[in-house]
Specification:
This protein is mainly alpha-helical and 263 residues long. The chain contains 9 helices and 2 strands, in the order H-H-H-H-H-H-E-E-H-H-H. The protein has one domain. The model has no long low-confidence stretch (mean pLDDT 88).
Length: 263
């Protein structure tokens, strides 16, 4: 019950901001979420043994998200500057192997979290951008909630026991099916460009699969760090990164699909 109430408390203000505020306000909220998720990511990799500063990685992720939103050559330029900074810092490490690994995991956080946040912010500027983002959110949330309940009630076969012992095959299937149903229902209730009720079936299924990959990816990081959750900021849920890990993979995939449909 605590987990469900926390989810509602977290989702409600995000939906209010999405539907009732200008895109610049939504962009600012995305930056806040990217900063917090980036901070948690950097904290986890520091627990894995890499000596990093959480605030530096969080600011790098925000800078890349902003660059993507602005567009043009800025994303490449900003990413190059970030990579240069990470390289210069890595040179101070004792071994070349440590320098290379630290550079890799630091850049992964920037691209994964900052890149995903920037692309989701861009979706807000698409035609019917509010409906488009709402569709994405609903599919991912339905997938996540249904996977949890289906796994607890029907789950028998472990999906990836070494990575995430609690996830089951039945839970994953139930989550994807629920996401598809939520996606189809949403397209009947509102206009989502590029996604009609029939296309909502494969699109929602794809979003669910990418969300599952994102969830498992973050689980690998947490297992490596020896932590159950990314933080304890959200009662019953852990950290912000624990709540948006699926969205961070599903968002870019959905963006690429819509970009392909539009152009």
């Amino acid at each position: 019950m605590t987990r469900l109430l926390s989810a509602l408390v977290l989702a409600a203000p995000i939906l209010v901001i999405l539907f009732s505020t200008p895109s610049i306000v939504f962009l600012f909220v995305v930056f806040l979420l990217v900063f917090r998720a980036g901070w948690e990511y950097q904290t986890l990799i520091s627990l894995c043994g890499w000596r990093v500063r959480a605030w530096e990685g969080a600011l790098d992720a925000c800078a890349f998200a902003l660059a993507l939103w602005v567009g043009g050559v800025l994303p490449v330029l900003v990413l190059g500057i970030i990579l240069l900074r990470i390289f210069l810092k890595a040179f101070s490490r004792e071994t070349l192997r440590e320098s290379l690994s630290m550079t890799s995991v630091s850049l992964l956080g920037v691209v994964w979290i900052g890149g995903s946040g920037g692309l989701i912010a861009i979706l807000r500027g698409f035609p019917n951008g509010v409906e488009t983002i709402f569709f994405l959110f609903i599919v991912v949330w339905a997938n996540d909630i249904a996977a949890m309940f289906t796994g607890k009630t029907l789950g028998k076969r472990k999906l990836a026991p070494k990575i995430s012992p609690g996830k089951t095959v039945e839970g994953a299937i139930g989550g994807v099916i629920a996401g598809i149903l939520a996606g189809v229902l949403t397209t009947f209730c509102m206009d989502v460009p590029g996604v009609d009720p029939w296309l909502a079936i494969p699109v929602s299924g794809g979003i669910g699969l990418f969300a599952l990959i994102g969830d498992l990816g973050e689980s690998i990081l947490k297992r490596a760090a020896g932590e159950k959750d990314a933080s304890d900021i959200i009662p019953g849920h852990g950290g912000l990164l624990d709540r948006i890990d699926g969205l961070l993979m599903a968002g870019p995939a959905f963006y690429c699909y819509l970009y392909w449909v539009r152009f």
